[in-house]
Specification:
Blueprint: H1 3-35, H2 41-50, H3 58-70, H4 74-90, H5 94-114, H6 119-131, H7 138-145, H8 157-166, H9 172-177, H10 181-191, H11 193-209, H12 213-226, H13 231-240, H14 244-258, H15 262-273, H16 277-287, H17 293-306, H18 310-323, H19 328-335, H20 340-349, H21 357-370, H22 378-386, H23 391-403, H24 407-419, H25 425-437, H26 441-449, H27 457-469
InterPro entries: TPR-like_helical_dom_sf
Transmembrane segments: 12-32
Keywords: Membrane, Transmembrane, Transmembrane helix
């Protein structure tokens, strides 16, 4: 063999050796990766139990995804769906929960398409769609249309109805085009009066959630006039969606029907929401002799909060503290009726003082008002470091730091809140205020528009930004 041939052979052997080494390296990496992840569901379950609910469980989700891709029967699929649901329910922040509910829904859709005959998987599929906070996708709606008539049972009919309401498939005309629609509609309307009540109340709720409050209130008023069983639920709808006086009237009739004093408490709450404080106060005073336990404590606290004179407030809060001496909010309210040093002593002597961030925060607030307006932020940071998960501290801290104009410390507070997954809407509000002060209306608009909750001051301030911007 000449030298050229020998060189060619050596080159071929070298390339072959490199390919073999690459293959071995790939196998080693796969082995190490596999050995670094749980090999069975019990291992995944241990990781799930150890998860604190705050950070995205990426490793757990990857393992569940691997198992899901290999799921060859409905039993395995059902077992995995239960774990996805457990993660979603256990999440401790809304952001993480929304992400995990979406993962749960995505996997439920996949498994229901694969195993439509398994009743438990249908139930979890419907459950996942009921939990998602976003509108249902077209693929999810289309899958709802494929549910067979024989799949409908007493266990899933109510949940299916709620999902159809969410998907806006709740009209009789649309029911009829669904494979199971006519049967479900007949069951809801003709067979069981209680289900008919639920169907009708859900129609009212759907109108309200769609933003058509006047139509919702009108439909609810008509329903409550003809159906005694629906009065309670409709009263709550009125309370939540802007007709508190009508809610108060209905709570009174419900109380007359069953004699439960809790409905009188609800009636008083409704009058407070309507701004009729005198009426609410009279109701609580009339009830005191017939209340006990937590209901009595609630009435005393409300009376103390609404009373016009210091002596009345002291009387109601002291009576409450005789019943429940560790009531944090009553201690705070009562301390505010005392001279500065006496108030601080009352808080510090409480058996729960060292464990209560609220009582310790009140002593800081007391010092600001009593001693000096040049209070430094040191005490606030010490308290935040002791109780980094208490969102009330961030709420008050954001207000205080903004009031004194200490934007540098306020930015630090935002960072600490993010680090500990605190998502109070007040923080979003103050972030937007800072952006507005800096002339960044686009950022302020983005912050306020990102909020999906119910805090009134968020949309109110977003409207002001729109007014200036557009």
């Amino acid at each position: 063999m000449n030298w050229k041939n020998r060189a060619s052979v050596r080159f071929i052997l070298l390339v072959g050796s490199l390919l073999v080494m690459a293959a071995l390296l790939t196998l080693i990496i796969k082995y190490l990766t596999a050995s670094g992840r749980p090999k069975n569901l019990p291992s995944v379950d241990m990781a799930i139990q150890a998860w604190d609910g705050y950070d995205e469980p990426k490793a757990i989700l990857q393992d569940l995804s691997d198992f899901s891709n290999d799921a060859s029967n409905s039993g395995a699929a059902l077992s995995l769906l239960k774990r996805y649901r457990f993660l979603a329910v256990r999440a401790r922040t809304k952001t993480i929960q929304w992400e995990l509910v979406d993962q749960y829904a995505h996997r439920a859709v996949q498994f229901y398409e694969k195993f439509p005959e398994r009743a438990e998987i249908l139930l979890l599929f419907l459950d996942s769609l009921n939990l998602v906070s976003r509108p249902l996708s077209e693929s999810e709606k289309n899958l709802l249309k494929k549910i067979s008539l024989r799949s409908i049972s007493a266990q899933n009919a109510g949940l299916l109805m709620l999902v159809l309401q969410k998907a806006r498939m709740n009209t009789p005309a649309y029911f009829k085009v669904l494979p199971y629609g006519t049967a479900l509609l007949q069951e809801l309307i003709h067979i069981d009066e209680h289900k008919m009540d639920l169907f009708a109340v859900n129609q009212v709720l759907t109108l309200a959630l769609a933003g058509n409050f006047q139509a919702a209130l009108g439909a609810g008023k008509g329903l409550s006039a003809t159906n005694r069983a629906a009065k309670n639920m409709v009263a709550y709808l009125f309370y939540d969606f802007g007709a508190p006086e009508e809610a108060a009237r209905l709570f009174q009739t419900v109380y007359e029907d069953n004699g439960n004093p809790e409905y009188l408490l609800h009636e008083a709450d409704a009058y407070v929401k309507a701004g009729q404080f005198t009426v609410a106060k009279r109701l609580w005073q009339d009830m005191l002799g017939n209340l006990s336990g937590s209901n009595l404590i609630l009435a005393l606290y409300n009376l103390g909060s609404l009373s016009d004179t210091v002596s009345e407030r002291k009387d109601y809060f002291s009576r409450l503290l005789q019943l429940q001496k560790l009531h944090e909010y009553a201690l705070v309210q009562y301390s505010r009726l005392l001279p500065g040093e006496e108030a601080k002593a009352l808080l510090i002597k409480s058996p729960i003082y060292t464990k209560s961030p609220l009582l310790q925060l009140e002593t800081i607030r007391n010092d600001i008002l009593r001693v000096s307006s040049t209070f430094t932020t040191g005490s606030l940071w010490l308290l935040l470091n002791r109780f980094p998960q208490d969102e009330r501290l961030y709420h008050w801290g954001a207000w205080y730091l903004y009031q004194i104009g200490n934007t540098q410390e306020l930015e630090k507070l935002f960072s600490m809140a993010a680090e500990h997954h605190i998502e109070h809407p007040v923080l979003l509000f103050y972030k937007a205020l800072l952006a507005i002060e800096r002339g960044n209306l686009t950022e302020a608009e983005k912050l306020l528009a990102s909020y999906t909750g119910e805090a009134w001051y968020i949309p109110a301030n977003l409207a002001k930004v729109y007014e200036v911007t557009y």
